[in-house]
Specification:
The complex is a heterotrimer. By secondary structure, chain A is mainly alpha-helical. Chain A contains 14 helices and 6 strands. Chain A has a two-stranded antiparallel sheet with strand order 1-2. In chain A, helix 5 packs antiparallel against helix 11. The longest helix of chain A is centred in the middle third of the chain and has 37 residues, at 114-150. The radius of gyration of chain A is 26 Å and the shape is elongated. The two termini of chain A are 41 Å apart. Chain B is an all-alpha fold. Chain B has helices spanning 2-29, 36-40, 46-56, 62-75, 89-124, 130-143, 146-160, 181-214, 218-225, 230-261, 263-268, 274-284, 287-315. The two termini of chain C are 28 Å apart. Chain C has helices at 3-9, 87-96, 150-162, 178-183, 214-218, 289-297, 310-318, 347-356, 359-366, 405-415, 430-446, 457-463, 486-493, 514-526, 531-548, and strands at 67-72, 101-103, 114-116, 131-135, 194-197, 202-206, 246-252, 256-261, 280-285, 303-304, 324-328, 331-336, 372-374, 421-427, 449-455, 473-474, 476-479, 551-562, 572-573, 577-578. In chain C, a hairpin with a 4-residue loop joins strand 5 (194-197) and strand 6 (202-206). Classes of the chains: A mainly alpha, B mainly alpha, C alpha+beta. At the A-B interface, helix 6, helix 7, helix 9, helix 11 and helix 12 of A face helix 1, helix 6, helix 7, helix 8 and helix 10 of B.
């Protein structure tokens, strides 16, 4: 009797965990994913703390030009932008990394503290990169699923729309917008967009990359549609919406989760190109992309100005990708059933 | 099959038409786009401006200008540039095509091979440390801004280490295939690698995740249950269906690249391809060249997607003709 | 000189560099300087005079031969010498085309001297200074083998109007019959204006009024002599035969321009058109400027046209110092302020900007004090009419020493414009953008809500001229055409140069002061009799302009020429800069 009792207690005492709970538990066990999460949170915190760094540690204003400024290192006063003294004395170079609290990574060509700007820049990059990637994956998911599932006319129209979008000359539009927005603003619903508004790059980048995610999703949905279990569900008269939600979406979601961090990285770089064309982050504001743009002009003398934001970009992208992988795996029900893998 | 092709051809024409109209509208909506003052010369008199405007037809209504430009581009085939007077646009594009094709084909070969190797290896090694390491390397490649990477490559191979390790690197520029495969490939080596680094990571990542997913599918488990070795399972069964996403992406990227999306790579390495032509025409606001380049690019985007759709049927036998 | 700017803007025929004329005031309808003055000679006193030959060094045959490789980021538009208005190609036209007269092709100050070229001698102007009779040199052939005759000369002058040359209305509107040609260019005959006498071998040019600068105008490429069968519209990429030591063999604006020796050339006047050294000149387009600097360093090319980027200057100034040549230019960088819209329609606001700019900082952004020198006047140092003065410096003096931010802030407050939004429109190349960003900081500090708007360099120049675009303040440059003060003052700030709602309105500030205009007209008239007198008047006008402050002059630039180590015989002409065909590659 005791064994039966204990069995019964064993069976009833463990509460059944819901699917989200299970997923979170699996994620926690994934060391790589957890590590990435920590790194991401650190990056975000550090960027949020940018004003603190700028005032308390670096004692600098990251946005005002400091062309004639000086700093004191080891008792010596040197100019932040020093005229070359070798040979003919041509050229002016910003100081390189001091590895101290002031001008830790050196100065940029306006004499501003690069490290402080990278922290401020991270805010803009993260916001633009992630929001546009989210927008992109969301729209692409809808378009890809609808297009792939319903096929025929709907697919034809949507796919050709995606073609126009992918072939669209974005740079031309950006140049046009940048000149139009010199004197005027564009109204999108209740929002007024100026050339410095972050919504511009978010919308532009989010929309132009929709084909890049939608077409693979569409391809997946097409092949899913032909599978037995889906055919069976269609045959049994299940309504489309439920089919989409029950059978198609869970199989497509992992793909979207894989694309989200990838697109974040790609979008942060595209934002740099748009800023170069005067759309989005405008001087004196910064983003990792604009600091890289500035840094390319200093590559031969002060390579750190371009390398440092690139490193931040890479770290963020890698962490997002590893985390994304972990999330995908923990959400994948079949993964729990696998054996040797 | 032919009906399918026919329908797609018609759709392609519509896409190209839509794009050409959009380009036209955007150009003329831009303040300061009127090329007359730039063509006429600095500080030209107002009469000269008016004469230039009339000789180019800028004073006519916009739809007439559109019609004329389309006619010159497609029927008469003698469309001339706004910036380089009398320079025909179509020869400029056709001269640039082999350069871009050389760049893109070589880079695509490299990145596809690289992605296959990385993706398959990562899948085989999942659960070990190698998997995330491959992923990290790939994502770092994606995170590198291409212009920066190109300039760094030039800094190292042409400037800093040019006298020592990289003395064999030829000066920047394009050498046609007719001058010999060796010089052609040598001039393109670093542009290929630079471009490939950007894409290899994306493809490896997507491929790996598709393959890992497919490892849990029934048909794979069945194959394993049948006793087929892991490698064969990987390569024969899992890889093929996982290629759908990769092929789709490849169609998008390859189509865009042939059309000139590699413009920053071409600029950095001094290759006069379609991308550079597009870039120059955008900074100069040279509408005829912009139009020609954009339409050329759009054609390839549409064509590449068409080929990819055809490939779906072959890749996944369960898919009937789309 | 910042040829970066030229490279970006110089793609079209409307590039920078060479300013419009002096006496024409930049518009064909302006009352030209031509107030008649008895006895005005072709050689105004005090100007760069007509000189004899002899300063050009003798030809050294051991250095003859080889191929010269030049690099530029981009080509400069049309190859037609009557239309192209860029320094990049004017530098090449010296070797390929000749006018009746030309600037001496020599190193140094003498390069402003006008010498006879296709004419045998420089004639004295007769008929009250309105008629010149040139005798054409016999025996000169074009590069296509045809002989040069008076018919070609007449046709060339007609062609200036037929192809709508940018200076047709500003330089050559003083020729009799020009008015009709400007109205209907296609049927231009210049009847009575340019008359050829084939038998005597002379060409007579009749002006409507004496023009002290007419010889200069004959010496620029727009007045080069082309064969009479040259096309009647812009020839574009098709080379037109010329009489120079070299000829254009091929031109593809996307890849390269090739010049080879003119097989029909025999040196007739060494100071006007000297024999050249290289056998072939390859001008390659398309590489980035960074790549071009590396190529010259690696001895893969001989010279690059564009100014070296900021991060290579220290390197080439130290490691390659012996291959670098730095020369001052008669040019300046400045910020025009729109005097017709807020906030700069208020004179205190404009003066505040002049007080606030730290010109040393701008010099640093350009590349350091070896490459630029702060200025507070519109006329550049060394220019006729220049007098050193600075109204906006602290401590006070005649040269600029420091900005006064406090005073600037005070002026902004007094003007009542504090807190207004100001957009600074700049070119999007590295240097201009850096200056724009710096100015954004400065204007914010003195009390405005400033933002910087970089736009494509090829559009910026025409964009800031058009009053429709309501540009408040911008950064731009101005270079001389030839040494005449009116070239700067009357062209940039004369009433006739302001055309509302036009892309061609070089008076970007929109400044028109009747009193100052009258003074400028007076100075132009005085040039007929005495350049020295006129220059004193120009100096006074400059000072008055600076008080009214429609512009904020920043600095005057210097030009860097970076040659590869195997290139020799660098010669710098103040008019057309480096003499390309005199370089040695052997």
């Amino acid at each position: 009797m005791t064994t039966l009792d204990s069995e019964r207690t064993q069976v009833t005492s463990t509460p059944t965990a819901g699917p989200w709970r299970t997923a979170w538990r699996d994620l926690r066990r994934n060391k790589v994913a957890m590590g990435s999460l920590v790194v991401l949170v650190l990056v975000i915190l550090v960027c949020i703390a940018a004003p603190l760094y700028a005032s308390a540690i670096a004692h600098t204003d990251a946005f005002t030009s400091n062309v004639n400024g000086t700093i004191t290192i080891n008792g010596q006063t040197i100019s932040v932008l020093e005229t070359s003294s070798e040979g003919l004395g041509l050229g002016v170079n910003p100081i390189g990394p001091t590895w101290t609290n002031q001008y830790f990574l050196g100065a940029d060509n306006q004499g501003r503290d690069v490290a402080a700007r990278i922290l401020y820049g991270g805010r803009n990059s993260l916001v633009i990169g992630f929001t546009s990637a989210l927008l992109c994956c969301f729209l692409a998911g809808i378009v890809g699923i609808v297009s792939g599932f319903f096929g025929k006319g709907v697919d034809a129209v949507l796919s050709r729309g995606l073609d126009v979008l992918w072939a669209f000359p974005v740079y031309l539009l950006a140049i046009c917008l940048s000149i139009v927005l010199i004197n005027s603003t564009i109204a999108v619903g209740p929002v007024r967009l100026t050339s410095g508004s972050l919504w511009l790059p978010i919308l532009i980048i989010g929309i132009i990359y929709v084909p890049y995610v939608a077409r693979p999703v569409r391809g997946q949905v097409i092949s899913l549609r032909e599978r037995e279990f889906v055919q069976a569900a269609i045959g049994s008269g299940a309504p489309d919406l439920r089919l989409l939600r029950r059978e198609i979406l869970p199989n497509v979601l992992p793909t979207l989760i894989v694309f989200l961090p990838l697109m974040t990285a790609i979008n942060m770089l595209t934002e740099a190109a748009l800023s170069f064309l005067s759309i989005g982050v405008q001087p004196p504001d910064a983003s990792w992309g604009t600091i890289v743009n500035d840094g390319v002009g200093l590559l031969y003398t002060r390579p750190w100005v371009a390398i440092a934001p690139g490193i931040m970009l890479a770290i963020t992208a890698v962490a997002l990708n590893l985390l994304g992988d972990g999330v995908r795996e923990s959400l994948d029900p079949k993964a729990k059933l696998r054996g040797a893998a | 099959m032919w009906r399918f092709a026919g329908k797609r051809a018609l759709a392609a024409v519509l896409v190209l038409f839509a794009i050409s109209v959009l380009v036209f509208l955007i150009f003329f909506a831009t303040p300061g786009s009127d090329p007359a003052a730039r063509i006429a010369g600095r500080n030209a008199s107002q009469e000269t401006l008016d004469q230039v405007r009339a000789s180019f037809g800028f004073d006519r209504p916009i739809w007439i200008q559109y019609g004329l430009m389309m006619r010159h581009l497609f029927i008469d085939r003698d469309l001339t540039s706004f910036v380089n007077r009398g320079a025909q646009v179509i020869p400029q594009v056709t001269q640039a095509i082999p350069v871009t094709l050389s760049l893109v084909f070589g880079a695509a070969l490299i990145w596809v091979l690289l992605a296959l190797v990385m993706g398959v290896w990562a899948t085989a090694a999942r659960g070990t440390a190698i998997d995330p390491i491959i992923l990290i390397l790939g994502v770092i490649g994606v995170s590198l801004p291409v212009f920066w990477l190109g300039e760094v490559v030039n800094l190292i191979t042409q400037s800093r280490l040019h006298d020592s390790i990289f003395a064999w690197v030829p000066p920047l520029g394009y050498v046609p295939l007719s001058d010999g495969v060796g010089p052609w490939a040598l001039h393109l080596l670093f542009p290929w690698l630079t471009l490939a680094v950007l894409y290899a990571g994306i493809y490896a990542r997507v491929l790996r995740s598709e393959m890992v997913q497919s490892m849990n599918e029934d048909y794979v488990r069945m194959a394993r249950a049948k006793g087929i070795g892991e490698t064969r399972v990987l390569l024969r069964h899992s890889l093929r269906t996982s290629l759908i996403s990769v092929v789709t992406l490849f169609g998008l990227d390859f189509g865009a690249l042939i059309g000139g999306a590699a413009l920053l790579t071409e600029v950095v390495f001094g290759l006069q391809g379609v991308g550079k032509l597009t870039y120059d025409s955008l900074t100069n606001f040279d509408l005829p060249v912009i139009l020609a380049c954009v339409l050329y690019a759009s054609f390839f985007v549409v064509f590449a997607n068409f080929l990819v759709d055809l490939l779906y049927a072959w890749l996944d036998p369960r898919v009937r003709s789309v | 000189m910042n040829r970066r700017v030229l490279a970006t803007v110089g793609l079209t025929t409307s590039a920078l560099v060479l300013a419009a004329c002096s006496s024409g005031g930049g518009s064909s309808t302006s009352s030209s300087a031509a107030a008649t003055s008895a006895g005005a000679s072709a050689v105004p006193s005090g100007s760069a005079s007509v000189g004899a030959s002899g300063d050009v060094p003798a030809f050294q045959p051991e250095h003859q031969g080889g191929t010269l490789t030049l690099l530029a980021k981009a080509a400069a538009g049309t190859l037609d010498p009557k239309v192209n208005y860029t320094l990049q190609f004017w530098q090449l036209y010296q070797a390929t085309y000749d006018g009746l007269t030309s600037f001496k092709k020599v190193n140094g100050a003498d390069s402003f001297t006008v010498v006879p070229d296709l004419a045998t001698a420089i004639p004295e102007a007769t008929n009250g200074g309105k008629t010149y009779v040139f005798t054409l040199r016999p025996g000169i052939k074009f590069s296509d083998g045809t002989d040069l005759t008076t018919d070609d000369v007449v046709a060339s002058f007609q062609r200036i109007f037929k192809v709508s040359s940018p200076t047709a209305g500003s330089f050559y509107n003083g020729i009799v019959g020009a008015d009709a040609c400007l109205k209907t260019p296609a049927s231009c005959t210049l009847d009575g204006g340019v008359v050829g006498d084939k038998a005597a071998g002379t060409v007579t040019i009749n002006l409507t009024a004496p023009d002290p600068e007419f010889l200069y105008k004959l010496s620029v490429p727009h007045a080069a002599i082309n064969p009479k069968n040259a096309p009647e519209k812009d020839a574009g990429n098709v080379p037109i035969p010329g009489t120079g030591a070299y000829m254009f063999k091929s031109y593809d604006p996307n890849t390269s321009l090739v010049m080879v020796r003119n097989p029909n050339f025999k040196e007739w006047a060494r100071d006007a058109q000297p024999q050249g050294y290289p056998d072939e000149i390859d001008y390659k387009f398309g590489q980035t400027v960074e790549a071009a600097v590396t190529a010259v360093e690696n001895n893969q090319a001989n010279w690059l046209f564009d100014p070296p980027p900021a991060d290579r200057l220290a390197e080439i100034g130290s490691k390659f110092a012996s291959q670098v040549h730095v020369n001052p230019l008669t040019a300046y960088w400045y910020m025009p302020m729109n005097v017709n819209i807020p906030p700069f329609n208020n004179i205190k606001a404009r003066q505040a900007v002049n007080w606030a700019i730290d010109r040393n900082a701008m010099v640093k952004l350009y590349g350091g004090d070896k490459l630029a020198q702060p200025v507070c006047t519109i006329l550049p140092p060394g220019f006729p009419g220049y007098e050193e003065s600075c109204q906006y410096t602290t401590p006070a003096g005649t040269t600029w020493q420091g900005a006064d931010l406090a005073k600037a802030k005070q002026l902004v407050q007094e003007s009542g414009t504090a807190g207004q939004e100001v957009a600074i429109v700049v070119s999007d190349d590295e240097v201009n953008k850096a200056m724009g960003e710096y100015m954004q900081s400065v204007l914010t500090q003195i009390g405005y809500k400033a933002s910087v708007k970089p736009i494509s360099g090829n559009i910026q120049f025409t964009y800031i001229q058009n009053s429709k675009n309501k540009v408040q303040i911008s950064v731009t440059q101005w270079y001389q055409d030839y040494p005449a003060a009116s070239d700067f003052l009357n062209v940039l700030l004369g009433c006739a140069s302001f055309v509302p709602n036009s892309d061609s309105s070089i008076n970007m500030a929109g400044f028109c002061d009747k009193g100052l205009q009258a003074k400028m007209d007076e100075a132009l008239k005085t040039e007929q009799t005495s350049f020295d007198e006129a220059n004193k008047m120009w100096a006074a006008i400059d000072k008055e302009m600076m008080t009214a402050s429609p512009q904020a002059p920043i600095f005057t630039p210097k030009l860097i020429d970076f040659l590869s180590k195997d290139t020799g015989n660098y010669q710098f002409s103040k008019q057309f800069y480096m003499l390309v065909d005199q370089l040695w590659v052997k």
